Amino acid sequence: MIAKIGKGENLWGALTYNQQKVDNEKGTVLFTNKIPDLWDRPYSVKFFHQYFEPYLIANNKTEKPVRHISLNPDPGDKVNDKDYREMAQQYMQEMGYGNQPYVVFKHTDIDRTHIHIVTTCVQIDGKKISDRYDHPRSMEVCRKLEKRYNIKVAGENRSLNQSPIFKPVDYTKGNIKTQLSSVIRHMPQTYSFQSIGAYNALLSQFNISVEEISGELHGKMRKGMVYFATDKNGKKISSPFKSSLFGKRAGLENIQVLIEKSKMKNNPSKLILKRTIETAISTSKSEASFKTQLLEQGIATVIRKNDEGRIYGITFIDHNSKSVWNGSQLSKELSANSFNKLWNEVEIKRETKYDHNDHFNLSQEICKQQFLTDSISGVFDGFFSGLLSSDTNEDQEEQIFESQMKKRQRKRRKK
């Protein structure tokens, strides 16, 4: 089982994303903690939100008070609702959230069912629940749950304890060839990737760059690869090293074989990674916060831009599943063009100003909000439809009004 912990500040967005699944009959509310059960009427985002609000008010200094957690058993595991409830309770208890309000949603929109948990790390007394080392602690809890419920161990076909530890190349320490070798000799066998570009994005995390070369030798055209050490900005700072210096595994022929094998391999972590990225998009406000949130989940993001600042490539490196994906391979909605459109629209939305006392302007804001929702929903195939809009115009107006009030309060504080 794989657990993903999303950290953000948009509680309404996290709740709406999950409740939208329930409303569309693609999910259910399995369990609530410190939130009353509703037997006579359906749940709503507004209902859930009111039970979190006292906790959020108790501490408004924590930048990311929201926790959006997903527990993902192996696709071959069959977990019933009773076990899901117990697994969620044990996980939350051992992670320190046992006394917090939280909602457990079961998603059934794909063949592999899984659960999402929404909670807050702020306690009722205003103290923050520590999230130090939460990733290794989460992995430990998952191993316990796997044993207790007899479900498959995540990555059981590979020995996690025997995985090599790769360190970025440090040019100032000398022995460049040795440092390069410690990564290049083993990296291709440890991670999966589907193009030379993806391989290069992976190496860039360790201050290494690779290039294909071709030339004539003894009357025949030859192709090969050379490696460079780079600085933190990706600039080459060493002379080229032939791949033959690091063995056949680092050569072009072997890399191409690994690429073809990776293309044919059905990687179950692909969908989990896609959903984690979508969640990070919904709970982040900028490129920087998006990358930080994913990095906290063990996912590195490599973004390539031209001189004008336009994104022309985006690659995600999942260190949990040891796989590398270009955004377009995960989904067309996660391509470079989609991120350009998304972040540009967010900036436009931030810069727009409104008259808080004019009902006409408020109506205009609702229209603009709906326009942005429709535009982004088209790009992200409906994923944002539950995050930027509610089921009714009244809910939309209420969200916008609340947003305006928060802006108003922030302005007052600055005065």
UniProtKB/TrEMBL annotation:
Residues 45-150 form the MobA/VirD2-like nuclease domain. It holds the Pfam family Relaxase. Residues 392-415 are annotated as: Disordered. Residues 406-415 have a biased composition (Basic residues). NCBIfam families: Bacteroid_MobB. This is MobA/VirD2-like nuclease domain-containing protein.
